[in-house]
Amino acid sequence: MPTELLILLPIAFIAGAINAAVGGGGLILVPGLYAILPTALPAQLMGTDKLASIFGHATSMRHYALRMDLPWKLLWRAAAAAFIGALAGVSLMSLVPGSWMRPIVIVVLAVMLAYTWFRPAFGQQDEYREITPVELRRGLLLGFAIGFYDGFIGPGTGSFLLFLFVRCFHFDFLRATACAKVVNFGTNLAALAFLIPTGMVFYHYAIPMGIASIAGAMLGARLAMKGGNQWIRRLFLILAVSLLAKLVWETVRPWL
């Protein structure tokens, strides 16, 4: 076993658990890859991260689907749109620097965080019902926009998905978490469709990390089901604050 895996496997396990519970595991896994594999290309690290993560997404998606009634008519459309959006985002990534979008993302994330923070009842009640044609069209737009963001910029996709499923479709945090896994699976699949043919995946790292991610996802999904909405809300706020701090630091660091 490569010595790097002694560090990457526990990181992948923790990231898989966080991803399954609320999203945002990339905040742990991606910096870990950069630290352990400093000479690798960013695209290689992205491909390795996506392949390892998709194992966990599939595991948590199956866990939730077996235990909850999910709006599959909405989710398959949103996931397909996210796949197309992510392909567009990945293609544009090499033409336009993602730093141009970072200030906009910071503002949107700050608004999302404040909205959730000052509305304690947000996401606590599940108003799941039959999805209307208008909501199906909304899901397509949401899926494409989130997919594009994930392909173009990346960090925080799970958190944005969680918030939007609660806000736009009136799900509680638990159902929104389960739905986010399906759409996030689509965005990861699109990124891999672009990165695998170009050889941007370290399989000897990604496969073992994927197995660790499966174990972490099983734990994270169980904790989410057991902890319920209040627990997920608190974890969501912690991750949103962490992501906001990371993006702000990356924006101001060149000026210091």
Please give a structural write-up.
- With 256 residues, the chain is an all-alpha fold.
- The chain has one domain.
- The chain is 77% helix and 0% strand.
- The protein is built from 9 helices and no strands.
- The chain has helices at 5-21, 26-36, 42-67, 72-93, 102-117, 133-152, 157-169, 173-195, 203-252.
- Helix 3 packs across helix 9 and helix 7 packs across helix 8.
- The radius of gyration is 17 Å and the shape is globular.
- It is found in: Cell membrane.
Keywords for this entry:
mainly alpha, globular, 0% strand, 9 helices, 256 residues
Which geometry do the CA atoms define? Answer: globular
Largest sheet: none
Mean pLDDT: 84
Total helical segments: 9
Low-confidence stretches: none
Q: How much of the residues is beta strand, in percent?
A: under 5%
Number of strands: 0
Order of helices and strands: HHHHHHHHH
Estimated structural class? mainly alpha
**Fraction of residues in H or I helices:** over 70%
Number of domains: 1
C-alpha end-to-end distance: 41 Å
- Rg measurement, Å: 17 Å
Give the SSE map.
Elements lengths: L4 H17 L4 H11 L5 H26 L4 H22 L8 H16 L15 H20 L4 H13 L3 H23 L7 H50 L4
Helix pairs in contact: 1-2, 1-3, 1-9, 2-3, 3-8, 3-9, 4-6, 4-8, 5-9, 6-7, 6-8, 7-8
Subcellular location: Cell membrane
Keywords: Cell membrane, Membrane, Transmembrane, Transmembrane helix, Transport
Protein name: Probable membrane transporter protein
